Amino acid sequence: MIECLKGKVINIEPETVVIEVQGVGYLIYAGNPYKYEEWLNETVIVYTYQHVREDAIRLYGFRHREERRLFEKLLQVSGIGPKGALAIVASEQPGLVVEAIENEDEKFLIKFPGVGKKTARQIILDLKGKVEEFVPSLTQSVPGEARTSRTSSYSQELEEAIEALRALGYIEKEIKKVIPTLQKESLSTDQYIKLALKEMLQR
């Protein structure tokens, strides 16, 4: 499985984006491809999920690893396919989705395309108690408000450094403590990582 792609956004379509990595263009299915317009012709990191069927192999892409984890959990629910799972994750409210599952809020879930009462109940039955631990940072969304990208105000280098720290196993609480220090600097991704690790060791 391809964990992630780091490359340049070279094309955007209604359902897909194309990420060029070392001369190879990868077609990525995204919940809201037009979110990538601000990164057109710039380098991004996209976390991917490879879905294989008899008639097709597709890559689904997410800006954050937690969103992909939620997507994977939704695929385990009977009646939810990649298209439906992607629509839920791309709703700008993934944290509220987790809260709805934990609170057994069927009314919130049935507003998504293709999710009726029966499917909403199945989502709750299958996933309650199983998603919060996989996507802890998503549950920090403010109720009633759409979640925005938590790193949207960061530079590309700082965002990549934060994703790298997550990949190294650091939890959100640890990362948030050093972000104010990192934001004071204008560094490369590697320099941000080194500074963050230094700060964490001193705490």
TrEMBL record:
A biological process term (GO) from this entry: DNA recombination
Q: Which residues are in the Helix-hairpin-helix DNA-binding motif class domain? A: 72-91, 107-126
Principal subcellular localisation of the protein: cytoplasm
Show the GO MF annotations. Answer: ATP binding; four-way junction DNA binding; four-way junction helicase activity
Q: Where in the cell is it found?
A: Cytoplasm
**A Pfam family per the record:** RuvA_C
This protein's assembly is summarised as: Homotetramer. Forms an RuvA(8)-RuvB(12)-Holliday junction (HJ) complex. HJ DNA is sandwiched between 2 RuvA tetramers; dsDNA enters through RuvA and exits via RuvB. An RuvB hexamer assembles on each DNA strand where it exits the tetramer. Each RuvB hexamer is contacted by two RuvA subunits (via domain III) on 2 adjacent RuvB subunits; this complex drives branch migration. In the full resolvosome a probable DNA-RuvA(4)-RuvB(12)-RuvC(2) complex forms which resolves the HJ.
Q: Function of this protein? A: The RuvA-RuvB-RuvC complex processes Holliday junction (HJ) DNA during genetic recombination and DNA repair, while the RuvA-RuvB complex plays an important role in the rescue of blocked DNA replication forks via replication fork reversal (RFR). RuvA specifically binds to HJ cruciform DNA, conferring on it an open structure. The RuvB hexamer acts as an ATP-dependent pump, pulling dsDNA into and through the RuvAB complex. HJ branch migration allows RuvC to scan DNA until it finds its consensus sequence, where it cleaves and resolves the cruciform DNA.
Q: What is this protein called?
A: Holliday junction branch migration complex subunit RuvA
Q: Which organism is it from?
A: Salipaludibacillus aurantiacus
Question: What are the top taxonomic ranks of the organism?
Answer: Bacteria, Bacillati, Bacillota, Bacilli, Bacillales
Coding gene? ruvA
